[in-house]
Amino acid sequence: MLTMYSTTWCGYCRRLKSQFDREGITYQVIDIEESPSHAEFVMSVNGGNQTVPTIQFSDGTAMTNPSIVQVKEQLAAIAAR
């Protein structure tokens, strides 16, 4: 399962969630404005910035503002291991 770090006002996050739903991709959403520890994680993978959406995959890798194609490619790569 994926973890999406998001905010309530992020349009890119809403778009990616919609694409996940359409593709049947299971994910968990964490609002970084409600969780300082998760905001710290987002900053750690984004050069100190709270950039969302940040996606964390089951293998620990992360992507920032990825396209649905990039997410599907990463999921396929993880599954192939």
TrEMBL record:
Keyword Oxidoreductase: yes
A UniProt-annotated Pfam family: Glutaredoxin
Entry keywords, A to Z: Oxidoreductase
Domain Glutaredoxin: 3-56
InterPro entries, per database record: GlrX_actino, Glutaredoxin, Grx-like_ET, Thioredoxin-like_sf, Thioredoxin_CS
GO molecular function, one term: oxidoreductase activity
SUPFAM superfamilies named in the record: Thioredoxin-like
UniProt-listed Enzyme Commission number(s): 1.20.4.3
Example GO biological process: cell redox homeostasis
Transmembrane segments: none
Xref: NCBIfam families: GlrX_actino
Record's protein name: Mycoredoxin
